[in-house]
Amino acid sequence: MAFVTLNKKSLETNYNYLKNLFKEHDKEWAPVVKMLCGHKQFLEYLLSLGEEQVCDARLTNLKTIKSINSKVETIYIKPPAKRSIKNIVKYADVSFNTEFTTIKWLSEEAENQNKVHRIIIMIELGDLREGILGEHLLEFYKKVFELPNIKVVGIGANLNCLSGVMPSKDKLIQLSLYEQLIEAKFGKKIDYVTGGSSVMIPLLQKQQIPKGVNHFRIGETLFFGVDLFSNKTIPKMKNDVFLLHAEIIEITEKPVLPYGDLEENPSGELLEINPDDYGNTHRRAILDIGLLDIATTDFLIPVDKKLTFIGASSDMLVVDLQDTRKKYKIGDVVSFKMKYMGALRIMNSRYIEKRLI
């Protein structure tokens, strides 16, 4: 059975690096924990590193967090669906919002639960995912401000999450100016100007973040140590927090090319034949994991760099062993580092065992 490990020491290293980085620049941050898919043991460990504030986009995960420690401040980081309003108010201390109708529902439910629900208004800065247009912000805020049991504690933006628009100092200055407009117009303090996600860290390191942007939500860099501008590991951070391990269930010397009439496989792929491979054989291994778990091999990085992917079906992954010097045998485990989307898929699979090491 394939399994995934979370390395406590590596995660602690990354957490402390980010904690010190944001403290050095006098900024606040909150871990985005949706990568953990509500896994209680992993969440308990992460919360032991620091428990002030966490972000997630799944209500069941926020419910688990509250069951571990009810004092942790939870932030729901996407606009709420109507059917989720009751549980948003129950399990999320703060939610991201872009629609007045939704905030009105939150207001009514917060009144029913005898709570004040806090919200962050998301503003569109060009990536074209969630966010109201900046020219509508003052009118929008005025209507929201009049609702009972609702408190606007911040404004925010997302970049590089849908269209790939990268952050810049100019865009963040624009976001900061919106906060100043609200405070000047209504005389109301906005606590958080939440500038974005892990993609902001290189700008922070280069001191390109305006003073007014004071809060960030960090997931990918926390778990993968990656600089999203260069796609390289940040010095002093770790890229092995998550490792996927799959067992070898067959090793055979087989022809490089299949034989017989070729059509598309179940994934809709049609194999391209290289005539130079006719007559050649390679040693290959089958691993006990497949597309049902990983979706695509594009998100997997073999720890043994001499392994190459041949292909995958729903439940099995085939790798070429021809160039490796390791003497693999049946029952051995092959390990992979993962990119963000690969690890997210694996963590969400109920077929993959999760281990804290």
UniProtKB/TrEMBL annotation:
Keyword field: Isomerase, Pyridoxal phosphate
Limits of the Alanine racemase N-terminal domain: 7-224
Top-rank EC class of the record's enzyme: isomerase
Keyword Isomerase set for record: yes
Listed SUPFAM superfamilies: PLP-binding barrel
Molecular-function GO term, any one: alanine racemase activity
Domain of life (superkingdom): Bacteria
Pfam families in the cross-refs: Ala_racemase_N
Enzyme Commission no: 5.1.1.1
Cofactor: pyridoxal 5'-phosphate
PANTHER family according to UniProt: ALANINE RACEMASE, LYSINE RACEMASE
The name this protein goes by in its record: Alanine racemase
Originating species: Lutibacter litoralis
